Amino acid sequence: MMLISLYAFSQDVARFSGSLASNANFFIRDTLIGASNTPQYDHQLFGGETWLELNYSYKGFTVGGRFDAFYNSNIINPQGSFSDQGIGRWFVNKEINGLDITVGYIYDQIGSGIIYRAYEQRPLAIDQALLGLRVAYDFGENWTVKGFAGKQKNRFEVYESVIKGIAVDGFHSFGEEGNVTIAPGAGIVGRTLDDNSLNLVLAELRTYDQDDRFVPKYNTYAFSVYNSLSAGNFNWYIEGAYKSEDIFRNQNGDQFLQDDGTVIYTSIGYANKGLGITLEGKRTENFEFRTRPQEQLNRGIINFLPPMTRVNTFRLLARYNSATQFLGELGFQADVRYKFNKKLSANINFSNIATLDNEPLYREYFTELTYKEGRKWQIIGGVQLQEYNQEVYEFKPGVPLVNTITPYGEFLYKLSKKKALRFEFQYMNMNGSDKTGELVKNDYGDWAFALVEFTMAPHWTFTLSDMYNLGPGKLSPIGSDGEKAQIHYPRVDVFYTNKSNRYSLSYVKQVEGVVCSGGICRLEPAFSGVRMSITSTF
Amino acid sequence: MKKIFVLLFPILLFFACSEIPPNVGGGPIAPGPGTIQKKVLIEEFTGVQCVNCPGGARAIEELINIHGEDLIAVSIHATDQFATPMVESTIDFRLEDSETLLSFIEFPEGFPTAVVNRNLFDGESQLQLAKTKWAGYIQQELSSEAEASIELEGDINDSGRMNVTADVLFLDADPSVQYKFTLMITEDNIVNAQIDTSGLVLDYVHKHVLRDIITTTTGEDISSSEPVNLTFDDYAIPADWDNSELSIIGIVHSSGTEKRVLQVEQIKF
């Protein structure tokens, strides 16, 4: 891998900046865990992606571009291979007398993103930039109006549907010293289907029974009103959205429907003297909003619905996740953190998600206790209980609810100012079903995970971990002896950081999975091989 | 005042006029008299353990009911994850040809999936298409002009040996392209276990299942400058196949990076 460093000065206040992110995967076939039968494992043996971003600003002008490259990449389709390269983004921005103008590929959002969010998330191959025009104008100090129009990016092309929007955002403070503030806002987004997409819908509708047919709409509008209130130790955010009739696929994904939709989302927080409390709630109904109804999975999504569960970082705790259900869900989350003293703090989190018919989808109880002994050592421990509806999230009819109990712990010990050791341990106990007189664990059954990490600041980090399927379940692979195999999934990582450059080299064996969403089943194959990555910011 | 107008104008543009709705009724557009109909091949990738795939199969049957003989379907059971037989399965539908064909055409992102005339349609980034796109692109292909004609004749003798002849005539060919001919054999109405959204169905009826590709998987080279006559003799039909449910499918297609099907034809025994 080559280190790239570009650094240039110009006259006056010109600035040249950028970033590089590059991944390379070397595939090693392992038929036992299912790391096979894709082009990369069969004959390509290598796949990678690169994003090189360059920005230049001078006297109020900012221009930027990004070179994207995919070589035998499986990031977009985990079962396939994609190769292409080109300009993934360009833009020009200039502010003229309070009017901010941007043309090119634009990232932006309205409110929390419920009706519009153009963003990028590279590991999921999400890039929802809008190719078009954005203008924003400040009315005094407290109000901003922005408008945009264009077409959503689709790899190196664009979707033909036209998207336009306008939003107003305000800010005002009250009271002595301005300790009460409000930030209200409202937005409208419209999407006009292109002729080709609508003609595909018409062709599909003509195969339906008369009772299931409808007159499809070219135009869909989404409206949103929101406000953020901050008063002393309290903050409160609320957003309500409505979407006019739109074409979307039913839960099974085998039929088009057309209906309007709503979302209401609120979050209340309190923080004072070591205590932090956050409560969140969201109700969603028929709020799938895409550039065209034919797109699925992560493709062509115009908006973003906030998730209602915590982000878990420990490996086994993050194994089951609740995918956002655009068609209907009711979610609630409560998070309480308390710092007893300098050494001891605790965190309790509860989340619950159900369908609008009160069918359970996901529930999580999470507890965490952290003890710090000065700067010498630190220990974290807790337990997670999960209930996960695999039938809905992975479209496996008749499969019982997955229930897990996962105790975990982490111990961090500083050997010296620059050297530290960290240990992690988790154990996932899976529930099972007993149909034949023998308990059979659901999904992959029980897991154990252990990790040891050695850090030599400021440059080196070495990590060794293993995820072990010690109690195989229904879906665990079968070994050569015809029995369910107890398989190790080891991983070795080396990280090197030098100022703003970070390099990593990893040997990975990762378990496979089948994920079904919106009526489409997608294979997430196992990974076996070597990964290298470089990130650099300049 | 001006600022208010600037603020209101774009809002008003959103609601300028109500839209004139499209006509949902209407059926397929038939070709004129004396023209050769371009037929459409839909190759569906499926598997007995794919819970959503029966939905795709039902959609294809619905489309065949609409388009009749102009739409020719092949169901290809592929990938170990979805096509591996279950304990309840009596037949293994997997073929080495199926995996080779999947690799040759393209790996899909999910199932059910199908390719329509192996064509990369405008606005699409891949050959594999989700179910909600099949009807529109089939209609689009049926409306386009035929670039070749195929005549198939075949029989199965008392010894269970099949003989097939194929006559290909190019109506519109690119001399710089190497065209190919692929011959497939499918079997209809095979009862075998299948997972559906309702659970395991032991007596599921599988339609137009790919049983073999008689030529090489990616086809045999044929010339486009003169009529082509191909013969396939003495093919041994396995004893467990039902001869009355077999079909022969002949496909003329491009080669190289463009795999587009120019014409397809099917005969039933």
The name of the CATH superfamily of chain B reads: Immunoglobulins
Main beta-sheet strand count, sense and barrel state of chain B? 5 strands, antiparallel
Specify which chain pair forms the largest interface. A-B, 65 and 55 residues
The largest sheet of chain A, given as strand count, sense and whether it forms a barrel, is: 24 strands, antiparallel, barrel
The end-to-end distance of chain B, rounded to whole angstroms, is 80 Å
Structural class of chain B: alpha+beta
Here the CATH topology of chain B equals: Immunoglobulin-like
Strand content of chain B: 25-35%
How many domains make up the 3D coordinates of chain B? 1
Number-wise, the strands of chain A total 34
Query: Could you give the count of β-strands of chain B?
Result: 13
Q: Spell out the helices and strands of chain B N to C.
A: HEHEHHEHEEEEEEEEEE
What does this entry look like structurally?
- The complex is a heterodimer of chains A (538) and B (269).
- Chain A is mainly β.
- Chain A is 4% helix and 60% strand.
- Chain A has helices at 39-44, 195-205, 390-393; strands at 15-27, 46-58, 61-73, 82-96, 99-106, 108-110, 116-118, 120-121, 126-127, 130-139, 143-154, 157-158, 162-170, 172-174, 180-192, 219-231, 234-249, 256-272, 275-285, 328-339, 344-354, 360-373, 377-388, 402-414, 419-430, 432-433, 440-441, 445-456, 460-472, 488-498, 501-510, 513-517, 520-524, 527-537.
- Chain B has 269 residues and is α+β, with helices and mostly antiparallel strands.
- Chain B contains five helices and 13 strands.
- In chain B, the strands form four sheets. In chain B, strands 6, 9, 10, 12 and 13 form a five-stranded antiparallel sheet that branches. A three-stranded mixed sheet of chain B has the order 2-1-3, with helices on both faces.
- The model of chain B is unreliable at 1-6 and 28-33 (pLDDT under 50).
- Chains A and B meet through strand 11, strand 13, helix 2 and strand 33 of A and helix 1, helix 2, helix 3 and helix 5 of B.
